[in-house]
């Protein structure tokens, strides 16, 4: 697997009450994630921070994973 650094715009939401002026000032957070590229499609990619090496006959498992929509990605680089 390749290690990648992804710079992307993260969505946000909250259930708290907020006035319209404050709401209109909100902007997406610019996030940076580094991880192992697990899977990639035309729509999204999945990275993880850790994985378990499979023993014979077992399935590889992933931890600390993120699914990031490609429409939110600003920059992707292999590291």
Description:
This protein is mainly β. Helices cover 6% and strands 56% of the residues. The chain has one helix at residues 20-24; strands at residues 3-10, 29-40, 44-52, 61-69, 73-78. A 5-stranded antiparallel beta sheet has the order 4-3-2-1-5, with no helix packed on it. A hairpin with an 8-residue loop joins strand 3 and strand 4 (61-69). The longest helix is centred in the N-terminal third of the chain and has 5 residues, at 20-24. The N and C termini lie close together (11 Å). 8% of the residues are buried. The mean pLDDT is 94.
| Order of adjacent strands in the largest pleated sheet | 4-3-2-1-5
Order of helices and strands: EHEEEE
Strand content is over 45%
Number of helices: 1
Number of strands: 5
Q: Poorly predicted ranges (pLDDT <50, ≥5 residues)?
A: none
Helix content range: under 10%
Report how far apart the termini are: 11 Å
Radius of gyration: 16 Å
Helix/strand structural class = mainly beta
Kindly report the average pLDDT value.
Answer: 94
Q: Based on Cα principal axes, name the global outline.
A: elongated
Major beta sheet summary: 5 strands, antiparallel
Outline the fold blueprint.
Layout: E1 3-10, H1 20-24, E2 29-40, E3 44-52, E4 61-69, E5 73-78
Antiparallel strand pairs: 1-2, 1-5, 2-3, 3-4
Task: Give a concise summary.
The chain is mainly beta. Helix content is 6%, strand content 56%. The chain has one helix spanning 20-24, and strands at 3-10, 29-40, 44-52, 61-69, 73-78.
